Amino acid sequence: CPGRCSCDSVQSVQCYRLMEVPSSLPPTTKKLYISHSKIQHLQMSSFTRMLALEDFILLASGTESVENDTFKMLSTLKTLELWKNNSLSSLVSLQSLVLDGNNIESVAGPLALPHLRSMSMENNKLHLIPAGFFTSLQSLQFLSFSGNFLTKIPIDLPKSLLSLKMERNQLKVVRFRDMKHLENLSHLYLSENSLSSIDGVQILANLTTLELSQNQVPVLPFRLPARLQKLDISNNLIQRVTVQDFQDLRDLKHLFLDNNVVSLFEAGALQMCSQLSNLALEQNLLLSIPLRLPGTLARLDLK
């Protein structure tokens, strides 16, 4: 066991008052806790032998910088906590943060990244985004949590958001009233979840793209946002398409209704969609081509 460290076992090590990450740690170390030290810089060479490391907690150690690819070799890392350090102080101008595919199981905030515009944490193992996580991310415009285990959309999302991706999660319900402050949101991606209803989406008045494919939605959402240009609700359980469903969607250009169980398509249901150019209806239960389709259609899929 390295000096100034205590090893509870060959898998758990706690160290205090160090000048650098110890190089003589057992290669079987799974948890490393370092606190009250003077480790100014973290670099990849400090971790090359720690191929079993799952949890790394660095507390109050004056860390100012983290070298690129420092944690690249740590494919087993599940938890990374850099508490009370200055490791992000040099990143206050950061505009894009991508943490895709890192097996991250939890996050804590707030992140002090006031100029961050784009953040992606796709394909991790997140179950919950804690309240307050976005407090200091008031410039964020593009956010993706696709490919996680989230059961609800995070609360307190930044008002600045333009695009939100939540595909391939475990959403069953979307509480749009918790999103009413997202006045600028134009793109919302909710495909491949377990949604059975989409009520209240009209509250997102500036939404232009809504993707809901591969859910369990039985009816078209009531009162869709009037500025919608693309609606993908393919691979659901839609049975009916009526005039009322689309009467306010004059800007709609792309509509994907394929792979549903549509058996009723009212004549003229899409007549008010005066810009519709792309309509997908294949793999439904229709016995005939719907009547009075818009003359603007450039593509109609009925396979």
TrEMBL record:
PROSITE patterns: LRR. Gene3D superfamilies: Ribonuclease Inhibitor. InterPro entries: Leu-rich_rpt, Leu-rich_rpt_typical-subtyp, LRR_dom_sf, SLRP. SUPFAM superfamilies: L domain-like. The keyword Repeat applies. Keywords: Leucine-rich repeat, Repeat. Pfam families: LRR_8. This is Nephrocan.
